[in-house]
Amino acid sequence: MSESTRDPELTTYRDVQISPDFSELRRRFRRFVFPMTALFLVWYFVYVLLADYAHGFMSHKIGGNITVALLFGLGQFVSTFAITMIYVRWADRRIDPDAEKLRHQIEGAPQ
């Protein structure tokens, strides 16, 4: 297929995909997301393993009917919301401005 018969939008997308700006954006995204995901998965599996193999520890009462297991379970919800809030704030500062520039480059709109 010659250059003149190719879809110009596909060329634009490919140009952006191989650009250093896109590579940097993808690298920055992965440097945040992969470690955060790994951290959360470790935290989650520790909770599951403790619940399965450390019954004595997890059933220890903290106060009233509140047990260590209940606090860990609630901690899962809290950490999920915390990670989401951290990601949104981080993406607003570190990803969105550069992604917006790339979007304008693809759409041909003024920056």
UniProtKB/TrEMBL annotation:
Transmembrane feature ranges: 32-50, 62-88
Keyword flag Secreted: no
Keyword Transmembrane tagged: yes
Protein name: DUF485 domain-containing protein
UniProt keywords, alphabetically: Membrane, Transmembrane, Transmembrane helix
